[in-house]
Structure formats: C-alpha cells, structure tokens
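Collaborator request, handled under Task 6.
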Amino acid sequence: MKLKEYFNSIDLNEINRFIDEGQEENLNLEFKTVNHPEYNENNREFDKKNISEALSGFANSSGGIIIWGIKAKINERGQDVAKEHKPISQLTKFLNLLNRIEGQAVSPTIIGIEHQKIESDKDVGYIKTFVPISDNVPHMALYAHKHYYKRSGDSFYQCEHFDIVDMFSRKKSPDLRITCKILNKDMRNQVNYRYQVIISIENIGKNVAKLPYVALNLSNSFCADAFGINGSGKRGLNQVRNNVLFQHNYSGGSEIVIYPNTILDVDKFYTDIPINEAPPSLTIDYMLVAEDMESKNGNIFISEEQFR
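Structure tokens returned to the collaborator:
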C-alpha cells in the first residue's frame, strides 16, 4: 500500500491499534502530543516547533504521516512506540492552527500537505497529517531555529552540510529502476521450451535520465538473444565491454534519454529447457547508473511459477 493510501485508511480503529499493539515509530510515521490550545505562549511555541521540524524532516526525506494526540515512549528494546492516548481538546482549533501555519513553518512551502480530524468525541480526538516527499528540497524549519531536518529511522535529525548538498542535487537527479517482462514460452523443435524475458529501465523520477548505463548477470544459462528485442537485432542500448564483473554491459550515448514515466527496453534474454522439465528460475544481478544519479546495485528474482 502506498503511503497516501495508508494515510487515507487511518481511522479511530487504527488509532486504537497503535496503542494496543505498541506501534513503533518508523521512517514514515511519527506520533506527537499537543499542548495547544492551552493559552500559554511557551506551549504554543513548542507546538509550532514540533510542526516545523516534522514538516521539514519528512518533506526532505521520503514523506511521512504525523499522528497528533498520541504519546510515544521508549520501550525495553529502545524503540519509540505508541504508548498512551492524549486526545486533543478543541480539535477544530488545532486543525485551524495547522492549516494556518503550515505555510509559515517551512521555507519554501511544501505542496500537498493534508490534515484531517479523527474525532473520538465532539471536537475531541486526533489529527492525522500527510507530508509528501518534496521535489523542492531542502525545506528550512522556520520555527525550529531555521535549521534543516531529515528523517532517519524513528526520529528527525538536524542536517549536516553534506545532507543539504545532497538534497540540492536530488532536484536534478533521475530515478531509475530495472523492470522485467516475461514473454510467452515458445516450442523449439518439439524438444525444448524457450523461456524469454525482456529487461528494461524505467524512469520513475521527474527528471530526464541521460547517459544511462546498465550491467547485468543472469543465472541459469540465460543468454542475450542474437536477434535483439524485436528480431531485427536492435537493442535499446549499445552493447559494451567495460565491466569485467558483469557479463552483459549496455550504455547509451548522448542521443539516448529516458523521459520521466517512460520505459526503455534494453535487451531480450532466453534459455531453452526440455519440455519434460520444470521451468527455470532466474536471478538478475544488476548495476544501474545515469548522469547525476548515484549507482544502484541490486537483484531481481523471477520464480519458476512466474515463468509457468
């Protein structure tokens, strides 16, 4: 489930589950108590600092959800977990505060923040806040001493210089991933089935990817098809030989770009298996990089059942 879908699903039952099961705070979930609307200036400033820090931290990282009205405590394993209901009185007033100051709490403004009430009684209860990951980082927490924050594990931390530099570079970085498409098996000479897969690069980011490069190792005797992707010998990237750690290497020159939300098919691979034997499994180890993007290393596993 995507973070926004989970945010939309949170209701009073989920609030109670947090407490009953001791839900741990994590990279995308934070519990906060609220002093407002007790009309003490120090209390109001503390709430504003919490709001500012959390909005900055989540937007500068991978987005997150804040639940206002739950107290978290450290358990015996050193984890911050939901421990106690602290419902907010004058719930509407605190919601109005959130809506009013969210644009003042961080700079630049974060687009796409949402606050919703979860009432346990009339104008008493909890508020859930959704903070999207931002493309306009870094965001300064104006009510938290004008520092920049990021999320790590179950807490926010004040950014170091290299964190801020990294966030500026994120503005122009593409976000690529490897995808696979399994083709229908073919009968070969009434003896073998040919199992085939096309390996592609998908740009799931919002910036154009230039100079893409991918290196691949495939298990179970999968070979690159000599006839390319469509039978004409054509491949999405040029075959190169510049990485001895990988059997298959592909590179795109300056004329090849991958636009956001598009997929570039790289090459087709196959293996022939006797028809009386089980389908193969496949492990793909890869390295993937492009201009202004850090190298990604990983692996993908395709099971026998998926080929079947």
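The cover message to the collaborator said: "The chain has a mean pLDDT of 91. The helical segments are 3-9, 12-21, 41-59, 91-105, 161-170, 304-307. Please let us know whether this matches your experimental observations."
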